[in-house]
């Protein structure tokens, strides 16, 4: 991250149950304060802009497996069933903003996981017959396509030795400029040939009392 005190860590485990194992991450997060959050891919609401009826588990039915149309209470009636357990750790160690930012990130991650797992279920006919090698190749191609779409912009820092114009030097204090030279700028340099001002004349001439 570009913020040195900001990190997101997500660990995943899978088990053939309905989410009944509350101690699955006891070893990894023994000393951490945890909050358990259940995600129901069929019933939980998602942001409206991401909703697609074709990816709604309540209406989707797989042609290859016969699975789908997950109605209320589907976890107690559908087989086979698997639970994807996620351990999400968010750290934003900036005083004054830590709690609010961490809570916001947890909410965003939850929405991402909900949408992603709904899509994984709704796309089952596309990946159901894949071998593990084909899955890895699909992941590689997807990552490459994503990088091309988003673009990769490496950070760049350039330093110029061009002297600052006078208009910049006279800028207000709210927008200061930093000189690249260690020498004092010209407008702060005292001219060498300027005569010193004297506080009193060198000789004092008194008037002649006889005149």
UniProtKB/TrEMBL annotation:
<feature type="compositionally biased region" description="Low complexity">
    <location>
        <begin position="163"/>
        <end position="185"/>
    </location>
</feature>
<dbReference type="GO" id="GO:0008526">
    <property type="term" value="F:phosphatidylinositol transfer activity"/>
</dbReference>
<dbReference type="InterPro" id="IPR001666">
    <property type="entry name" value="PI_transfer"/>
</dbReference>
<dbReference type="GO" id="GO:0035091">
    <property type="term" value="F:phosphatidylinositol binding"/>
</dbReference>
<feature type="region of interest" description="Disordered">
    <location>
        <begin position="163"/>
        <end position="211"/>
    </location>
</feature>
<dbReference type="InterPro" id="IPR055261">
    <property type="entry name" value="PI_transfer_N"/>
</dbReference>
<protein>
    <submittedName>
        <fullName>PITC1 protein</fullName>
    </submittedName>
</protein>
<dbReference type="Pfam" id="PF02121">
    <property type="entry name" value="IP_trans"/>
</dbReference>
<feature type="domain" description="Phosphatidylinositol transfer protein N-terminal">
    <location>
        <begin position="2"/>
        <end position="144"/>
    </location>
</feature>
<dbReference type="GO" id="GO:0005737">
    <property type="term" value="C:cytoplasm"/>
</dbReference>
<dbReference type="InterPro" id="IPR023393">
    <property type="entry name" value="START-like_dom_sf"/>
</dbReference>
């Amino acid at each position: 991250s570009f913020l040195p005190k900001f990190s997101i860590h997500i660990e995943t485990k899978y088990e053939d149950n309905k989410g009944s194992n509350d101690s699955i991450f006891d070893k990894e997060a023994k000393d951490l304060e945890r909050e358990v959050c259940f995600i129901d891919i069929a019933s939980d609401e998602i942001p409206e802009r991401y909703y697609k009826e074709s990816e709604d588990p309540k209406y989707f039915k797989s042609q290859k497996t016969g699975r789908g149309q997950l109605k209320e209470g589907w976890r107690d009636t559908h087989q086979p069933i698997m639970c994807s357990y996620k351990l999400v750790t968010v750290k934003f160690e900036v005083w004054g903003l830590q709690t609010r930012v961490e809570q916001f990130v947890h909410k965003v991650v939850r929405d991402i996981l909900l949408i992603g797992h709904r899509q994984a279920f709704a796309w089952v006919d596309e990946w159901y017959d894949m071998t593990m090698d084909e899955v890895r190749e699909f992941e590689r191609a997807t990552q490459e396509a994503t990088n091309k779409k988003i673009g990769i912009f490496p950070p760049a820092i350039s330093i110029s030795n061009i002297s600052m114009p006078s208009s910049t030097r006279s800028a207000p204090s709210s927008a200061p400029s930093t000189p690249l030279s260690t020498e004092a700028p010209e407008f702060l340099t005292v001219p060498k040939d300027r005569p010193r001002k004297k506080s009193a004349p060198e000789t004092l001439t008194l008037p002649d009392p006889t005149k």
